[in-house]
Amino acid sequence: MNSSTTRIVTHAVLMITFCLVAPQIWGADTVLLEEDFEGVTLEASIMEQIKDKDVWSGTPPEGWEITNENPKDLGMPEWRTWAIVDLEWWTRTAEDQRRSEFTGVHNDGKGVGKGAVSDPDEWDDWAGNGDPDALSRWNGHLITPPIKIKGAAAKSLVLTLDSSWRPEDTQTAEITVSFDGGKEERILLFKSVGIDAGAHTLVTIPTLDMDEEDIKDGEQINETLEIPIDNPANATEMIISFGVIDAQNDWWWAIDNIKLISTAFSVAPKHKLAVRWAELKS
User: How far is residue 89's CA from residue 87's CA, in Å, rounded to a whole number?
Assistant: First the structure.
C-alpha cells in the first residue's frame, strides 16, 4: 500500500462553508451530544500480535450500539466490527502505516487517548481462518442513543468530529441521521475508488454542497469535520449512525471527539454544556 503527503482539511475552510449555509445565533449554541470515548473501560487484546492490557473493547459507551454485520468467526477478532481502542496501541498493531498521524485536531490537549475504529485492513491481516476478504465484505455501524433535540430550530444542528480516513480499493464510509424514528438520511459519504491509478476518495456532503469532490490518499488522515444537518422543525429526537460498508482488505476509518451542537436551541438540556462558536473554533 502506498502513502502520500498528508494535507489536513482545515477547520477554518469548513467553517467558512458552514457560514454560507446556515445562520449563526451567537450565545445560543448548545451541545446536545458529546462523546470522546474516554469513559469506556478497555480490556486486554484477544489475538492481535501486539498483546496488551486495557487497550480494546467491543462494548460502546452506555446507550450506544455497535452492529456486527460480518461472519461471526471471520478475520482478526478485535476488528470484526467497530471497536473502542487505545489509539496508540492501534497504531502499533498494524505497524503504523500512517495511523499515528491521527492525533485528534480538537482534543483539547487531552492527548490521543481512546477512539472508535473500524479497520477492515487489520481485520483481513490474520491467517487464522484463511483469506477473510475473499469470503466476505466488511460491514459495521456505530450508532448513538436517541438524542433529545426538542426545541432546536429547523436546520440548526451541526455535527463535529475528529476523523481519520484512508482510502484504498473498495471501501465506503457514511454518516446517516434519522428523526423521530423516520427513515435514515445520509449526511456524509466517503467512497474509495481508483486503486490502479492511485487510491482517492469521492466525498459527498449535501449540506456543504460537496458532490463527489475528489480527495487524494493521505489527505484525510487527520481532520476535523463540521457537517450542518437539515433537521426538520418540531423534531424531538434523532439518531446518528457511523458506518463502514462494502470494505475488503482496505484501510480504516477512526473517529473521536464527537459533538452535536444546536446553534439555536430554546431550552438547554440538563447536564449539557452551553458553548459559543467562538469558543469552539479556538
Answer: 5
Residue 122 · residue 250 · CB < 8 Å: no
Element (H, E) at 185: strand 185-193
The Cα 219–Cα 169 span in angstroms is 16
What letter would DSSP give residue 78?
A: G
What is the spatial distance between Cα 99 and Cα 211, in angstroms, rounded to a whole number?
27
CA-wise closest residue to 89 among 127, 117, 66, 121 = 117
Question: Cα(57)–Cα(23) distance, rounded to whole angstroms?
Answer: 40
Neighbours of 121 (CB within 10 A): 24
Task: List, for residues 1-54, the tens digit of each pLDDT value.
Answer: 433 333 323 333 333 233 333 333 333 578 999 999 999 999 999 999 899 999
Separation of alpha carbons 61 and 63, rounded Å: 6
pLDDT tens track for 131-168: 777 778 899 999 999 999 998 889 999 999 999 999 88
- Looking at residue 138, its amino acid is W
Query: How far apart are the C-alpha atoms of 27 and 25, rounded to whole Å?
Result: 6
Is the pTM higher than 0.90? The answer reads: no
Of 32, 19, 67, whose CA–CA distance to 235 is shortest?
32
Q: Which residues pair with 30 in a beta bridge?
A: 262, 274
Separation CA 242–CA 58 (nearest Å): 15
Q: How many Å separate Cα 103 from the centre of its chain?
A: 14
